[in-house]
Description:
The protein is α/β, with parallel strands linked by helices and 415 residues long. It has 3 domains: 2-48 and 97-157 and 260-303, FAD/NAD(P)-binding domain (3-Layer(bba) Sandwich); 61-95 and 164-250, D-Amino Acid Oxidase, Chain A, domain 2; 316-393. The chain has 9 helices and 17 strands. It has helices at 13-22, 97-106, 226-239, 288-303, 316-331, 336-343, 349-356, 362-369, 374-393; strands at 2-9, 35-39, 51-56, 68-70, 72-76, 82-86, 91-96, 112-116, 118-123, 129-134, 140-150, 163-174, 184-189, 199-206, 211-220, 246-258, 270-272. Helix 1 packs parallel to helix 2, helix 1 packs parallel to helix 4 and helix 5 crosses helix 9 (374-393). It is globular. Residues 394-415 are annotated as: Disordered. It comes from Nocardiopsis lambiniae. InterPro entries: FAD/NAD-bd_sf.
Amino acid sequence: MNDHxxxxxxxxxxxxxxxxxxxxxxHPGGGPxxxxxxxxxxxxxxxxPRTWCFWEPEGGDWDHLLAARWRHLxxxxxxxxAATAPAxxxxxxxxxxxxxxxxxxxxxxxxxxxxxxxxxxxxxGADRAVVSGVLPDGSVARSTARWVFDSRPPRPLPVGRxxxxxxxxxxxxxxxxxxxxxxxxxxxxxxxxxxxxxxAFAYVLPLSAREALVExxxxxxxxxxxxxxDRHLAEHCARLGLEGFEVTDAEQGVIPMxxxxxxxxxxxxxxxxxxxxxxxxxxxxxxxxGVLRQTxxxxxxxxxxRVPVPPVPHRRRHLAMDAVLLRALAxxxxxGAEFFTDLLAPERLGDVLxxxxxxTRLPRELALGLSTPIAAMSLTALDHLWYSARSALTPGxxxxxxPAATPDARHRPVR
Length: 415
């Protein structure tokens, strides 16, 4: 049985990022932190390549690996009116998982042991946690660790009041003639027909004048079939006037958007990171920025000899605001297409991006709130406060989330 200081379970965005940050981290008294990254061997449990999008100022740690970046973002309303604005002070960035994985793994050296293990059990302990699973030859292996960071989606998902699924499918398309503006990404296009009890939109992320990722997305109760996604994508490509294009690749996924409390510490020695540990922003489904903040904090704690509890990388009031928005969408009190079109107006775009990245103060957030449907959002906020107070007085008796399809952990590109 091997022993490590840190075992990371799962090689997605969170697992790889944490392993990358721990390369070169030493204990306060000297000596390297011994790290093992445990992930399934190549096969049915291997996640497909993913696209990770996020925004931050220019000069980020991953800039040299980006597939594309955009300084201007476009929002298209249900009526077809388009508005483009600079994302200042941010740049909207696309990182392909293949590029990130190759870079991160090349830097592991002898500091991170990569173990092809299908982890089946993580047991907490007073001094050590035990991780056990199946090796490629079918044999069972066990390892101990002082700290375990598990990035696998929890099963079942913790119960909250509201659960929507952000489900999507995208085509990487190549056109025979110039068809895209490489300087501007279409963040949300609400011209697709709006389904009942859901919000539908498309977005276009140009990689060049002739290549782009065209994606159809819904915030709703359950995913579509691949055939249904493809029909919506074909309709949107026609709406964009694309002709004679080739689909070179595709991606598909499901991301839970929930107000459930996702704990990062689940034992004395066991923690959750990434989407499993609350890194996903509930109102948007974006995760990568939260992963960066969370893993940076873990690495700093280990270097200082502290208990490395991953922080939930979103402020409590922002999570409360997200819960109100999710409830307003789920109950139909606000129409998503109109809500997001108005919220993302050019004069507010930078402030909204700052809010969603956790970089705004309360007065500015209240000003943004005045741009939303005040009556509907106020009613939902009061409803949320009443629900929260009742839940605090009678724990365990709050209404459960409405039933929804269980996301497939193999198809969860991080946004």
